[in-house]
């Protein structure tokens, strides 16, 4: 007789306890178990909470603090709330990804569905205008939320003059001092530069410049095969650019499950994106009309050249902490500039906290939001919680790739016996009906208990489908729990149910 879900969970708990003498087992147990945090307070006057930075972490922290009855001020140097994510990151990139996908579909797929046009063309200014409109409306929306929740908003560059005082050079050219009992650093991250490469946002661009090109480059080189590089490469590739991705490492998106990663790369290659992996950029020449890169194998060897109209530098991001006066008040940072915090987001300086991209953990907007909520809950004397093992990652190409929990490589490294269940979207009725069936769902579960350890999805709208898996991991569900949950038909989410069936037993439709 099959073991019940409750019995499996009890078995999983016993397994974790019985392996406590092994360091690997302890890491495994901790990775699947949440931790609790206590209360931390600070001293000062005027505001209860001051937040430096108005990005996803900062503005969410400010709103939550105000909702908890704390007098709150948010300081933002950009003059527009939402940080990198809303202004020059997540939101404008998704706007362009959607617009470029619509164009690509109209050009290549609509005729298959009986929708035909005499011709299709790109109106790049209109596409950019739609993107800018979305950004403007959302930044104004956050300002409206500040007013609604009575958050004081100061536009300017803030830096510490003491653990309870922030000097702000305002955008109006004045200076003011904002005082607070508790101060949260939420200044986010900046583009990571590469030696010998100067970003001018014209021919050599960061993600910011890639979101605002005035014309479609004939040839685009992307340095870095992470989330941002692949997404922006997809945008311009769909619009007609010849895209080549140069990556120093052996693989694209190193945080991704290797099986999914390999299939994902094959899909992007079918979309005519070229990859040069294990390749190092030696030098950049901008003396001509275009840009010429000198390349060599990462391990050393014969050099080659590659030319393009535009080069996108997308080699990651680095914490933005310069000029904040952290050294002045003695806040500790690590060797890469991240602020060191405890499980309550408190730094070594009483009353000073940090969240989001400036502390260790995934550099993701939704992670920063969770940090912000938890941090102010601690400040307010409540309990907060963020489990970084439960933070989903999404690459918003087409198809999308989304994942949460452990990769198969991580599970193997932990020495845990496990099962794998897979289901291809080629066998999903909704995907076949809409003629968009590339991808699969892959589930990893502990063999004895059937507890889900990780879920990986490559499909259209995988970023939406993944949240059922996030919730399942959050509540310690088994693959059988998902398999025995009724899913509407026909939907893409049925592929997750079938993959769960394949994990603990057998799927129906393959």
UniProtKB/TrEMBL annotation:
The active site is at 489 (proton acceptor). NAD(+) binds at residues 224-231, 247, 316. Binds 1 FAD per subunit. It holds the Pfam family Pyr_redox_2. Its EC number is 1.8.1.4. FAD binds at residues 94, 158, 187-189, 357, 363-366. Keywords: Disulfide bond, FAD, Flavoprotein, NAD, Nucleotide-binding, Oxidoreductase, Redox-active center. Residues 391-500 form the Pyridine nucleotide-disulphide oxidoreductase dimerisation domain. Disulfide bonds join 85-90. This is Dihydrolipoyl dehydrogenase. InterPro entries: Class-I_Pyr_Nuc-Dis_Oxidored (IPR050151), FAD/NAD-bd_sf (IPR036188), FAD/NAD-binding_dom (IPR023753), FAD/NAD-linked_Rdtase_dimer_sf (IPR016156), Lipoamide_DH (IPR006258), Pyr_nuc-diS_OxRdtase (IPR001100), Pyr_nucl-diS_OxRdtase_dimer (IPR004099), Pyr_OxRdtase_I_AS (IPR012999). It comes from Rhododendron simsii. Residues 48-372 form the FAD/NAD(P)-binding domain. Belongs to the class-I pyridine nucleotide-disulfide oxidoreductase family. The keyword Ion transport does not apply. It catalyses: N(6)-[(R)-dihydrolipoyl]-L-lysyl-[protein] + NAD(+) = N(6)-[(R)-lipoyl]-L-lysyl-[protein] + NADH + H(+). GO terms for molecular function: dihydrolipoyl dehydrogenase (NADH) activity; flavin adenine dinucleotide binding. GO terms for biological process: 2-oxoglutarate metabolic process. PROSITE patterns: PYRIDINE_REDOX_1.
């Amino acid at each position: 007789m099959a073991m019940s879900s409750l019995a499996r969970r009890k078995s999983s708990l016993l397994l974790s306890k019985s392996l406590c003498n092994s360091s690997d087992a302890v890491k495994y147990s901790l990775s699947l178990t949440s931790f609790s945090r206590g209360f931390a307070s600070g001293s000062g006057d005027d505001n209860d909470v001051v937040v430096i930075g108005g990005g996803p972490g900062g503005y969410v922290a400010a709103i939550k603090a105000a909702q908890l009855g704390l007098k709150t001020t948010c300081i933002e140097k950009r003059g527009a709330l939402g940080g990198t994510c809303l202004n020059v990151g997540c939101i404008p990139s998704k706007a362009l990804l959607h617009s470029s996908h619509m164009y690509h579909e109209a050009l290549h797929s609509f005729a298959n569905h009986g929708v035909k046009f005499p011709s299709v063309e790109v109106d790049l200014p209109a596409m950019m205008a739609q993107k800018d409109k979305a950004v403007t409306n959302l930044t104004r929306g956050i300002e409206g939320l500040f007013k609604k929740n009575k958050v004081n908003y100061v536009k300017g560059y803030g830096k510490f003059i003491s653990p309870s005082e922030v000097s702000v050079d305002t955008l109006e050219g004045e200076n003011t001092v904002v005082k607070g009992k508790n101060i949260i650093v939420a200044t986010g991250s900046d583009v990571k530069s590469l030696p010998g490469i100067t970003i001018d946002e014209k021919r050599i661009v960061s993600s910011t410049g890639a979101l605002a090109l005035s014309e479609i480059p004939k040839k685009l080189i992307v340095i870095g095969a992470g989330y941002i590089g692949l997404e922006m490469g997809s945008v311009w590739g769909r619009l007609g650019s010849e895209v080549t991705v140069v990556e120093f490492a052996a693989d694209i998106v190193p945080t991704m499950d290797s099986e999914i990663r390999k299939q994902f790369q094959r899909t992007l290659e079918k979309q005519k994106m070229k990859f040069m992996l294990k390749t190092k950029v030696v030098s950049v020449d901008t003396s001509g009309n275009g840009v010429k890169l000198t390349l060599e194998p990462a391990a050393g060897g014969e050099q080659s050249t590659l030319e393009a109209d535009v080069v996108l530098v997308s080699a990651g991001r680095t914490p933005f902490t310069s000029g904040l006066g952290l050294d002045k008040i003695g806040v500790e940072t690590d060797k890469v500039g991240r602020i060191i915090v405890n499980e309550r987001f408190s730094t070594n300086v009483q009353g000073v906290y940090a969240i989001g991209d400036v502390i260790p953990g995934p550099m993701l907007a939704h992670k920063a939001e969770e940090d912000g909520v938890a941090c102010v809950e601690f400040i307010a004397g409540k309990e907060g919680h963020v489990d970084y093992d439960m933070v989903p990652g999404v690459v918003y190409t087409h198809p999308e790739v989304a994942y949460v929990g452990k990769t198969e490589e991580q599970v193997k490294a932990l020495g845990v016996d496990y099962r794998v269940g897979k289901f291809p979207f080629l066998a999903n009725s909704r995907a076949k009906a809409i003629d968009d069936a590339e991808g699969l769902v892959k589930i990893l579960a502990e063999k004895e208990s059937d507890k889900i350890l990780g879920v990986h999805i490559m499909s259209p709208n995988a970023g939406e489908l993944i949240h059922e898996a996030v919730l399942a991991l959050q509540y310690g569900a088994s693959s059988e729990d998902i398999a025995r949950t009724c899913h509407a038909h026909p939907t893409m989410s049925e592929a997750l149910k079938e993959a769960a069936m394949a994990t603990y037993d057998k799927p129906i439709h393959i």
